[in-house]
Amino acid sequence: MTEPKTLPLVVASVEDVTPALRRIRLTGRPLEGFEYFPGQDVALGVVRDDGSIVRRRYTIRRFDAGRKLLDLEVVMHGDGPGIRWAQAVHPGLAVEAIGPRGKIGLDANATWHLFAGDATALPAAFAMMETLPAGVRAGAYLLVADPSERQRFDAADTTRTVTWRYENAAEGRDGLVEAVSAAASSPDGGHAYLAGEVALVLTLKTALLARGWSLDQVSAKAYWNRGRANAGHGEPEIKA
Ligand SMILES: Cc1cc2nc3c(=O)[nH]c(=O)nc-3n(C[C@H](O)[C@H](O)[C@H](O)COP(=O)(O)OP(=O)(O)OC[C@H]3O[C@@H](n4cnc5c(N)ncnc54)[C@H](O)[C@@H]3O)c2cc1C
Known about the structure:
Layout: E1 5-18, E2 21-27, E3 41-47, E4 53-59, E5 62-64, E6 69-75, H1 81-88, E7 94-101, E8 112-118, H2 122-130, E9 137-144, E10 160-166, H3 172-183, E11 190-197, H4 198-210, E12 218-224
Parallel strand pairs: 8-9, 8-11, 9-10, 11-12
Antiparallel strand pairs: 1-2, 1-7, 2-6, 3-4, 3-7, 5-6
Helix pairs in contact: 3-4
The chain binds flavin-adenine dinucleotide.
């Protein structure tokens, strides 16, 4: 695994992909020779109201090595130093990233792959799903605010599916748990990758274990905790 490095970068561009998802493209010479595996992230240094620096982690959505461009996708919800940085960000702004970070990547031995979580899990799910070899079955199950938050997943391969569920719909997150439970009824050599809000990740993990998945078939990572700021190093205090 590549050791994380401190990368002084600048913002190259900012684009609102959906009403609540902002793509922030970083660039800079430190990205020369940068290596990572899909599913990894970078920890950005962002400023708290009191002036102290905290880390906030964002998944590497894609990396263009030739042009030294690294894309992050930030969910524009909540109220913390990360979101405030993402709201104020503009081309030319300097930012310190530390990466690559993270241990969860594709399980090469799995015969099929299941990705599930909320909108913050989308960058990891899509980044990993895009790099699977042709013909390997994979499905992403994502809970986003409403249909305007859907992103197209470009895959010529019809063995890749994306199933959307909506927080603003009557079934809410139960709809996601039901869809994942139905898809996961037989573990059959699969691997599941769960990410997002801590309670959602724990619920999904419990549902998979109840359907006979073993702990080593499930990679779960809590990204944030409702109503509670992440710690200074960028993770929720509660693990999933
Ligand atoms: C390994 C890893 C990878 C991650 N990848 C991504 C990614 O690719 N894209 C992404 O958007 N996030 C990602 N996250 C989550 C992101 O780092 C956290 O949501 C982060 O806490 C946001 O920082 P903040 O300073 O805005 O909020 P905090 O200071 O942590 O929290 C302030 C308040 O905002 C609320 N809040 C935080 N996030 C959300 C949210 N998404 N929706 C609603 N309320 C929220 C909290 O509950 C809290 O009440 C990742 C986290 C980890 C650990």
